Amino acid sequence: MVYDSLTEFERELARFGDKVQLIVGLEIGDKISPEDAYQQIKGMMKDLKKLRKKELKSSLDKLD
Q: Could you tell me the CA-to-CA distances from 16 to 11, 26, 60, 63, 64 in Å, in that order?
């Protein structure tokens, strides 16, 4: 499978893109408000940044 060789962050980044597409589609279709779409994407972005920091820290720890 394509995702087998990816890091956890890379897999989550791919999922993030899929989720953003879904949220934008819901917003364009007037199923959710622009503010709700923004808040959802903002929250997912925050989680993605935390995961990236965690993975970078883990990589640096392995170098020591």
A: 9, 15, 24, 28, 31
